[in-house]
Amino acid sequence: MTLLKRGLSRRRVLQTGMAGIIGSGIAPLMFTKGAWAQEFCNNPTGDTVTFGLNLPLTGAYAEEGADEQKAYELAIAHINGEGDGGLISVLAPTALKGNGILGKKVGYVSSDSQTKSDVARAGATRMIERDGAIMITGGSSSGEAIAVQGLCQEMGVIFMAGLTHSNDTTGKDKRRYGFRHFFNAYQSGVGLAPVLGQEYGSDRRAYHLTADYTWGWTQEESIKAATEALGWDTVAAVRTPLGSTDYSQYLTPILNSGADVLILNHYGLDMVNSLTQAVQFGMRDRQANGKDFQIVTPLISELMAKGAGESVKGIFGTSNWHWNLQDPGTIAFTKSFGAAYGSPPSQAAHTAYVQALLYADAVERAGTFYPPEVIKALEGHEFDGMGNGPTLYRAEDHQCIKNVLVVQGNENPSSEYDVLNIVQEIPRDEVAYDPAMFGGELGPAEPAPLCA
Amino acid sequence: MTVMSRNDLLLFLGFTVVVLAMPIWLHPFGAAYPDLLQRFMIYGIFAVGFNILFGLTGYLSFGHAAFFGVGSYAAVWSFKLLSLDAIPAMIFAIVISGLFALIIGYVSLRRSGIYFSILTLAFAQMSYNLAYSVLTPITNGETGLQLTLNDPRYLDRAMFEAAPGQPVPTLLGQSLGGFAGFYFCAGFLILAFFIAQRITSSPFGMMLKGIKSNQTRMNYTGFNTKPYTLAAFVISGMYAGLAGALLAVTDPLAGAERMQWTASGEVVLMTILGGAGTLVGPVIGAWLIKYFENIFSAINENILHRFFDFLPDGVDNVLVAISSKFVGEGWFLTLGLVFVLIVVFLPGGIMEGVRRIAHLFDRSRRSPTKPGKATPHPQPAE
Questions:
Q1: Interface list for A 113-132 with B (CB within 8 A)
Q2: ipTM confidence
């Protein structure tokens, strides 16, 4: 108030005015620029950046987790310019130079998520807080993915989801900081139903066994909707706990239920167990309602098919990707993975590898690690060459829209890896859907949260 | 009874200093990051509470994780329905888990010894299965209960506009992430420790110890021991609920796994490892186990190779091959070995070791004074 008491001199007014103009006009630019360059979680200052790999190395999905780890190690080597470069040369468009990310070498830390959401979240927190991870990736259960995705949104760290197939990951529980390359249960249903109708007719009675968590729930819902649209009946849908080993108590009631198709909404070791036991029960030799009894596994991978052995022959399912595709991306990846580990990669390995590369590419294109800019670079990004044909990272729900494969257990495998045949490649336009269909809200990217 | 004895006061002050200085003295051990420190505090509270039941009355409950989980679920529901503030969530969690403990305790405490343990185990396993697959609308099963943008949060919405972004628990508008969360939990651990200390030295605590040494005699002398054991059971259930709520405050996700029997077994391990019946022992046991779980499980072969780098090539690889079985996923092996060694050589847990060492020093100076009250500060990483 001293200003007013003395009266305002002209000089004073000019001074204050100029200061005001400068202050309001220019200073924010400087501040925002400074903030843009500095203030975010785990801003890498040295000449390395760290990826946090959150992998289930024990539990029902352990095998997928181990394969993902191999893929991440390979991807990191390729990003750093080691090895044969893998898919970097076929990714189009690409900003990767094979000298790390923005000139920084990539390292990694890992954590065993035990196929449990709680543990996955604690592991991710540790990797962010203690090890300074710039990005968290991995997970091979949707429960884990959703739990970790929520955490990453809180912390302001980008999460590149690995194997997660629940509609909720990019639906009801989608987050601005979470991205999924893998397809989802809805797309499985849309892709699989026409083939099932063609093979098994439109007058079938289905019995579902479902893993009791988010992925199982949404897959059951999607497959039910797709098969009921064909004219099938759903006799019952029974939930089984994740990680069960003995399914006989769930299989016995099916025999007298009047169902003639068993749909197994299981994954990983659960699927290996339930499928093998169902076949041991003699289900595939049975007749019901005057038809051959059939088993369907809506989501299946080479690892599971290999684990189930004989039982999987002739069974239909869907996959995100298969090593036997004949495009340059797939050939390059299978070659590079085979050279390093002596076996063809699984779809889990593929999605993990691609996610790591896409993140690195997005950072290069954004020119910064600042998450909101990286998010902008990923949203609506259209790319090709990764083995799935042209692919779009949808901005509305962070779901990749790409072709879906319908596969069938190989009747005459030529090697222990040649266990699935590709029946059909469903073009991406047919499996695209309205992003608003599953609800949910991405939330804001900015202000970028600051982790501790 | 209103004044603390000098020893108790020293113990309390020493404990407070050690806890509050944890971010400093744990730094060389690679454990001074907020998430692990918060877990140290939370499981410390859980173990202190468990010790009120097991250490004082001798009743071995194998189902305490149920109360822990109920506390978490109650807290997350309070975040979802009422407010993001931590205080209502914690009150809600303590009340609910107290009620839950009252019901389970009332039934289980009709038996003692192994039958009591089995009953509590059965109840806990029932609660786990309910949370995992039956009550999924309330618990969201395997996926875990999480906060979302469109939770109702009636209290918050009534008072102000929802802030943008992922909802996180706060304390009067202050965020509880990182070290703020640690000090918040540390405050509660110190408070929990203080209350446990007061309980132990009160006539009520004497009664509980009497039950442990000879319940039949207590009954013959005319005491009805039931209300005492039930009170101890409910108090320790409320402690577990508080710990569960704090875990939900620092990380707002409640999963069914924290109610599994392994989690119940873990708190028993913590208490025995540290020294059942002592005040500090269970806390040290909790710290030790959480340290193993988080640090040993994160060591992989690369780190081992770097560690054994100074050795010649062949020896180096052999050592890595052997020791890698004990770290990473194999950390349970290390923990098991430590547990066996302690139970065999120090049946009273780490606190007995501390007492023996203190005794050695005391004897060389003067006649032994009250052993076990002295608290040198053992490192959880020894």
A1: 116-119, 121-122, 125-126, 129-130
A2: 0.76
